[in-house]
Protein: PiggyBac transposable element-derived protein domain-containing protein
Amino acid sequence: MSSDESDGDFEGFSETDVINAEQEVLAAEERLRVILSEQGIGDDSDGDLNESENEDEGEEEVHIDERGDGGDGWHSRFDIYERGLPHLFTPRGNTGPSRVMGAEKEVLDFWQLYMGDQFLEFLINQTDSYANYNIQHRPNDNKMPWSIPTLPEIKAFLGLTYQMGINRKPSTKLYWSTDPVMVTPIFSSTMTRDRYTQILRYLHFSNVANEPRQGEPNYDPLYKIKPVVNHLNNKFGLEYIPKRNVTIDECMVPFKGRTLLKQYLPSKPHKWGVKVWMLAESANSYIQYIDVYPGRTVRTEGSLGSSVVKNCLEGANIAGQGYHVYTDNFFTSPNLYLELWENYDTAACGTVRNTRAGLPKDIMCKKPVNVVTRGDHQFRQKGALLAVSWKDKNCISIVNNTQ
Structure:
C-alpha cells in the first residue's frame, strides 16, 4: 500500500463492510455457543429451555394483571406477606468436618476414614463366600487354587485398581507387561497378574446365597452393591455435617459392561453408565448422600423427581432442620416445594419447566408479555412460593421459597 493510500482521509465504512462485520460477529457468537454447549455451559440442556422460537408461534399471549392467571391465586401484590415464619436452621451438630485431621496425615488416612478395616474385612468375607460358591457349583471353571485375601492384600488390590484408573492401558494384562515401553513395575512387584484377576473375578459385596431372583417379590436390582452404597452413605454423614445450602443433581458413572443398571443418555458426556442421584453441599461439593437409580423396573410413589429429592433429604439425615435445597428443572415443581416447606421444614429454589402443574401461566408460558428483552422479569407469589420469569437468551422460569 502506498503512503498516499495509507495516509488518506477515512471516509467511513461501506454498507458491505458493516454487513460483513455483523455476519462475522454472528458466526463468532454461534461458535462460542457451540463450544459452551459441548462443555455443558449455557442454556439448560434438560429440555424446555431450548425450545426454538418457531415453537412459540400460535400460542395465545396472556396479559399480566395482579390476579394472575384467571384468579389461580398467584399475584404480584408484594405488600402482602403470605409465607409465614421462615424455618430456623437447626443442623444435627456443628457444620463441617466431624473430626480434625492433623497436618501430618496423608491421603491414605483420609481414605481410611471412609473405607476402614471393618468394611474391608466384610468385603473379604463376601468375596471369599462368592469364590467358594463358584468353586462348589462350577468346579470345572474354577480350577485355580483359592485362598482368602488378607487385609494387606485386599488393600494392595484396591490400590492397583485405583492406579489403573490413572494410568490407562488398553487391557489389564498390559499392566504386568515386561516390554520397556509398557512396563509399570509397581504392578508386578505388588501382586501377580493371576492373583489380581482371581480376586477381581470373585470380588463381591453381598451374599450370593441370599440374593433374590428376578420375579420374586423382594427382588432388588441394587442388591449386589447395596452394602457398599449404604456403608458410604453412612460414612458421608458421620464425617461431615453440611452447611445450610445443598443441591441435588444426577451424575453418570461411566460403564459399558453388563448390568441391568446401565443407562443410555445421548445428551451426556458419558453416554453409557450407571445413573446416580447425589445430594451435595453447595459450597464445596462434598457428597452427603448417593442414590443409585435402579431403572424403570422399580416404581416410585409419586413422580420420580419428587421421590428422589425426598429420599435424598431423608437419607442424608437433613430433613426437618431448615436446610435450603437447590434443584434443576427435572425435580422442581410447586407441589414438591410446598411439601418440602410444610412437611420437611426445608426451603427450595430451582429452575422449573413451564409444563409443571400449579404455575402462574400468565408469566410462565413460552411468550409472556413484558418479558421480551434480556433483563426483563416478572414476579408472582402464592403462599410460601415465589415464581420468577426472567429473560436471558431464553425465558428462564424459577420457583423459590428460600428468601
Q: What stands out?
A: Residues 1-7, 39-70 have pLDDT under 50 and may be disordered. The longest helix spans residues 15-38.
